[in-house]
Amino acid sequence: MQWWRDAVFYQVYVPSFTDSDGDGIGDLQGIRGRLGYLELLGVDALWLSPIYASPMVDNGYDITDHRAVDPVWGDLDAVDELIADAHAHGIRVTVDLVPNHTSDQHSWFRAALASPTGSPERDRYHFRPGQGVGGAEPPNSWRSVFGGSAWTREPARDEGPGEWFLHLFSPAQPDLNWTNLEVWADLDKTLRFWLDRGVDGFRIDAAHGMCKQLDGTPPSSDDDPRFDQDAVHDVHRMIRATLDHYPERVAIGAVGVRNATRFARYVRQDELHLAVDTQLAASRFDAEEVRAAIEDCLNAVGSVGAAASWLLSDHDVSRPASRYGAGPVGTARARAMALVQLALPGAAYLYNGDELGLPDADLPDEARRDAVWHHGEDSRDGCRVPQPWEADLPAYGFTTGEPWLPIPDDYAVLGAAEQLEDTGSTLSLYRRALELRREHPGFQAPPSPGPALEWFGAPPGCLAFRRTGTTLVCALNTSPAPVPLPPGDPLLVSGPLDDGMLPPDTAVWLA
Ligand code: NOJ
């Protein structure tokens, strides 16, 4: 059963979901205590941000042991309990996997620093001599995604000038060398370790990374020697081959590739099951842009027979309720885009807190924690602030201690408990949408070979589509004036209709 083809995944950003032990940081037992909520919301699967041993320079994306749980989250027993309980609630559990890099505190990297130039220990990473007098300049001009050079010089050594190591993210995240077979063997071991524990799959971080065009490797990507090199597809074939030994497990790639043809290569039959589209999240609240993003993704994945998968936000980008505009307009637009996302054929990813309509938090500089911030780029902390559960509890029920990021006062009216009681809340909209998506006959489509979606004519600034083979129509109005509804009975509206018309900043489902 290809359950993942139309599953709704819920991203739990573990530090910010629920803290069970009062240290102010979310954890595995905290998630376990919210499974009832997640079942009520109606999601099919979780995606947990990294739960592995980590010095937390990048909130767990800097890993010292891919097969151990960091004590801040819990332990292996807590993982087993969470998986068992989630399954009992009918929810599958996928976990983040970070194959591009390790922490600089990983035993491999420490061994590399302690070993001579040219040693097997160094070969697991990318060490190179510097350029210029005394090797004082980086080996090349590559930039880190987090800003600054992608190379850092190792601490001074007795035996010579010392080398530079490559890190596409922070200097605390040295990139692994994917031409080294030990690196491959270790990932295979990690996959089996978690699959044997019962995880239902992996979200693969920077799935277009890993292989680089260094040292005269022939170019294979259009314009960026750091990413999307042909060799990375061999890594995905290896991952898939391992997963295929386990029934019903899924590999999902965070594939930051804009070229549709190259994006599609990641979801060929023997590679990833799903690649997360990022174009929808990058689109403005503009019908033309939204439609173009949808078409690009559907054409790409359709060309290789894969399912699409849609994401509006995650822990790296501004939340929809802030991104599309401030205040009530942003909220209205975020609600409208949620209906668009959830009407599209394919899988969907919800980011925890978006179901509550949370805006980004405006944090004072001294409260910010993001590694990116320390490298001079915009901080991602605003979208990572802990989830409010109940207005009357300290820290809104997130923790009994001090939350790791301060929770703004305006989150008080957005608590889950209060929203569950309010039929007009964003949470109630999400619950109803997920229920209809699961149960309404308008969503059930017999398999058909043609395009997954049919576009209807729509007024300027609007779009309307139907899932092929179904009666479900979704219409979105991004124009400044109300427009007539397409034919059909309204099933769900993201905001009130205006005299039977679809107002600006609103979407509707009809059947
Ligand atoms: C992408 C992740 O989503 C992001 O949060 C992280 O900082 C980088 N990869 C590095 O692992």
Automatic annotation (TrEMBL):
Tree of life domain: Bacteria
Alphabetical keyword list: Hydrolase
First and last residue of the signal peptide: none
Domain spans labelled Glycosyl hydrolase family 13 catalytic: 11-384
GO MF, one annotated term: hydrolase activity
Entry annotated with the keyword Ion transport: no
A Pfam family matched in the record: Alpha-amylase
UniProt cross-references to InterPro entries, sorted A to Z: GH (IPR017853), GH13_cat_dom (IPR006047), O16G_dom_2 (IPR045857)
Family: Belongs to the glycosyl hydrolase 13 family.
Protein name: Alpha-amylase family glycosyl hydrolase
Organism of provenance: Pseudonocardia charpentierae
